[in-house]
Give the backbone structure.
Amino acid sequence: MKRCSVRLGVDVGGTNADVAVIEGGEVIGAHKAQLQNRIGAGINAAIREALAASKAPAEKISAVVVGTTHFTNAAIEGRRLQPAAILRICLPSNQDLEPMTDWPPDLLRAVGGHIYMVRGGYEFDGREITPLDENGVRNAARDMRRKGIINIAVSCIFSTINDEMENRAGRIIADEIPDARITLSSRLGRFGLIDRENAALLNAALSSLGSTIIETVVRVLSELDITAPFYLSQNDGSLMSPEYAARYPVLTYASGPANSIRGAAHLTGLADAIVADIGGTTTDVGELKNGLPRNRSLPKRLAGVRTNFRMPDLVQIGLGGGSIVRLGADMMVGPESVGYELNSKALVFGGDVLTATDIAVAAGRTEIGDPALVSHLPSEDVARADKLIQTMIADAIDQMKTSAAPLPVVLVGGGRDLISRQLPGVDEIYIPDHADVANAVGATFALVSGEAEQHVDYNAVKRETAIEIVKRKAQSEALAAGADPATLREVEVEETPLPYSAGGLIRVRVKVVGDLLIEERG
Amino acid sequence: MLFRRSLRIDAGDLDELVYGTAILASGGGGDPYIGQLILKQALQKYGPAKLLDPVRVHDKALVLVVGAIGASTIFLERFPSLDALAGAVTEMESRLGRKADALVAAEAGGLNAILPIALGLRLGRPIIDADGMGRAFPEGHMMTYGIYGGRMAPLIIADDKLNTVVIEADDNYKTEQLGRSMVERMGNSAMAATYPMTGKFFKSVAIRNTITLSRDIGRAALTARREKRDPNAALIKFFSAMHKRPRFAETLFTGKIVDVLSKTGGGFVRGAITLENEDRRDHCIVEIQNENIIVRIGQRTIALVPDIITILEHETAEPITTENLQYGQRVNVFGLAAPELLRTPKALKIVGPRAFGIDCDYQPIEALAAA
């Protein structure tokens, strides 16, 4: 019998590499491996084990999807940013608020205050405020070249409505600085110039990681004789090509939670649910809405810098399998954790640290390690700590819910056994098979997306017409990113009225998604 | 103890000042972030600002009102321009044939409370510690300067390309309407100077000391937050302990937002949020027209415009502007008595419930609470 297409999903987090092998929608092999500072070797081992379990030959694999928060997250946490310049297209507007005004001093020092502002920019409706000063861009680029700066971010007023000036400026800079790594703000962020510009600058300062990520993946795949095309999953759970990821590595830094939510959707068949991914140190709770993670719309600080990346709305709490538990009057669970050392430090594994996993074993929720090693714990203490854990999760779930209507809850991740099957305020709890590698499964089923926005006056243009126009723009974005046209569907239509505007001005944003267009093999 | 109000604003006061303006904005005035950064940059460049106490404004002084005019979210892309604002002032001065002695804010809430301070630093002109609303309102004729007889004309509007328009109309409402349509043509982001008035008139109608009030509000709440005390309680205590005249302040409702409804109508954003408390027994509805204008719990009305209604994040007491309200947020509905100058029959005609299309008479928040 002819085999269906086989796909490989890989999720590389801070401590683990998770791999899932999928054939015709079924998980036919999975593996979780610790990285232990050897990233490439860790990924290699995880893929090998998972493939061995699945018995699928490497040449049957039609696509590989990699979600990796590892590289960029570590660089951001460690403040390892490289010098970068910002070219903002805005004059004569926006002189009174320069780029990086709100940056923490240590990050500003690392990146350097290389600021250039030139004439140009758009009105809210996409018309020019002033034409782009191309000579100004060229002069700025030459100055950057003299200073030896190759990481360059470009921003422009209302570039989310019209990105033409950013594109043109990017071409001029590339012409002047052939080895420049150029980040266009319109590719990253949303409405709100400062937040979008910050996102672009962070990407520029991390852009050397782009090639590191791609080279690592290419090397591992060639070691394993996997010749299938590969893709990377981004923060909002959609896919991007390696070429795109090489330019925009910051889009990978938080791809894990989105992948978990998508994985939960696939493993349960649910389209709407709350998903809690319980790891070793933290739990991420997000909402699955219409088959996709619900995105956050408010800005978020990243390393102290306000940004507006497209990413899921999450509640993160310091609770996981390795969370350290303190009993007694001032009882506490987390946020400190033994992390990846759970298997040696937890009581049930013969260690000397009381963890949330020990509580779960003592409370009879799960059987791992040696239950005799926690039998001495006073049962009322265990009951209280267990109750606290359930309350922490129930609160986080309730915070994520956007309506009083009942929603099922899906528990995934290595720490899922901490949680009771009867949580207050929750009607139905799902714990699917392969829940521990939900993120890798989710990576495999990541979708290709396209997004567009425009300001429309509903008094002048009919609502349906306006939405249709914006939708078409979003569709062409998705097709350019590799979506299968037959599968395109609209998943979000956001209409935001503009306060204090005359007339009926609305910002219309449309997001469409589709499956990845892949040639079947075998 | 003698209480002396410091009129100095420096970089260290910024967070507190911005917090206070967001409390007074009654949910409006836009995201204060851009204004905060513009003032931050101005303070870095020019050093601390020294405000002018309204009692020290000379009777014969020429006072001008300055501020941004446009759609608050547009300012997040195309920022308010101090050049344009300075241009509007210069145009006004050349028409009046006289330099302005002092500048003052239109509103105490949001961006327009902060921007004049940056302009004052830029121009080296005194900025008076006062405003014309004591909160935020959507339209220019709603300032006490106009309510009590001042003329909004000429209204000078300038954009960042220094396109300048002068409006002279027979009444303040007409001036506001004509101005608004000009601003639309300028990309919904423009700057304005208006209400030229004498120091004597100004002092009789202005809402005084609102900039330093904002800073002190912020100091009370943010200090409590830092010291791990309840910032909500600190806010309420601050208003009840105000040294001259305590103002009624209360947490009107605590709950979770379970519905957000918004639509535009009549040129301004109208909407409503529904909140539900823990035991789901009570529903609270807050109606919005750019700002929060009415609070109802069940059938009972418990706060009405012009009293100030601000939604605060439950734990941190961080104010949430209307455009940032979302499903699922846990919030407190904070109510604060409006300044007395907004509660007179004359003022209520222009800024009372009926001016916002609410079919009921104004009742003070403290009376509604006691009922």
